[in-house]
## 1
Amino acid sequence: MDFLAELRTHTTHLHERLDRAVSQTPIASRAGYARFLLMHARVLPHAERWLAGEPAFASLPGDRMRTDALMQDLDALELEAPPETKVAFNDEDSVAGVAYVLEGSRLGARYLLAELAKSDISVPDAFLRHGEGQHCWKTFRDWLASQPATPSAVEAAVTSARAVFAAYLDAVRDPEGV
Ligand code: HEM
């Protein structure tokens, strides 16, 4: 099985919904940018702490943790870190599935930075710039391709990826989810 293709096929509708929900308030506005960072702050620190405790995650090369950069941007915007929307991770959960969503979320960063650059607002962007020049997505894809893509591993990854997307949709208060 092709791990990446399976994850993509079974989560792309959630990504589209999340993209729509995030874009409800234009990112290139102080309110929209704050909403975007607070959405990540509700989910990402908890997910990264879980990943940090998983042996499989240790084999994924590179500095992947963005919680500090995210908190730095919130501080600079004088925003308090919100209560976390916790995903109930358990032993069944998959590092591949959780990391797919977090690492994939970097891909939108370039687009979002371009939107901000076109706007007249100046905001801290340590979180969006984290990993710039380190080819994080390519090295993640290479790592994913080296993981045994058994039907049960793929199923666990898809389930975990969906759970993280669902937490993000909850965190951004997705109007379509009400
Ligand atoms: C307005 C907000 C967002 C925009 C504009 C955006 C945009 C993008 C873009 C342009 C790509 C690359 C698509 C491609 O190369 O095929 C992408 C991929 C991805 N994004 Fe987003 N994104 C946004 C928010 C998010 C969020 C909040 C998450 C998760 C927390 C996320 C998760 C992903 C994932 C997992 C992929 C990889 C899909 C794949 O190639 O399999 N995105 N996004």
## 2
Amino acid sequence: MHNRTRRSRTTALTTLSPLAKEVRKVSAEFLSHNPHSPFLIADLCVGLFESLDAFYDQNPPPCELACGPGCSFCCYNQVRATLPEIVTIVRYIQKTTSEFERQLLSQNIQRHNQRIRGISDLDIPRDLPCVFLKKSRRSIYEVRPFACRAWHALNRSDCLRAFEEKNPLAPVEQYPARRQAALDFVCGLTRALDHVRLPSGDIILPLGIEAVLPFSLDHLEPGWLPLFQIHKPGNFPNTA
Ligand code: SF4
């Protein structure tokens, strides 16, 4: 998976599809107004999420997806996210939770990160659910990262087998065009970040949230930027 995944994003970065080129153009124009405003970066990311959802609506899969509320086997896969995705999720959390709820979330994230820090993506324990999974429901569904928007299944049994085998490489039959669209959005966005000289790498989701959540988001903290310097594989797992 890792070599394939590195190749898939790296290849996509060098040879942008028409969709990725359009996302890059729109994102670079948007960010050029004030590339160091976390709120503007989050506004862009929300706009891209909505555009991807609209793309999915206009390009429905040939058969019904197996995914539905309450199904969460895939939420035991760790995902990576870029700076705009992390800032967008933190803004959503700060807008939709109380101070007490954020304290509880921070404690849960710190416990989670103690178990994953310094471990390669594939070696992260498979019994660890996403920190945002609450009673099989995704508490940040509205602003979930591109990797979660890309992930889906045509047969839930594929996901159950992957979950029971604790095997992140287990093949899951998917609709490739749906994954490719999300990958094109991320590649266009990261090219735009390069253009405005912002870090275009990614980080494991809870590690990024732990770093950004304590801050007010009125400016980009210098300490965040080194966390997003490197793109590491693992963002878009392989399919059947
Ligand atoms: S990808 Fe699989 S585990 Fe995730 S919601 Fe869809 S069917 Fe359920």
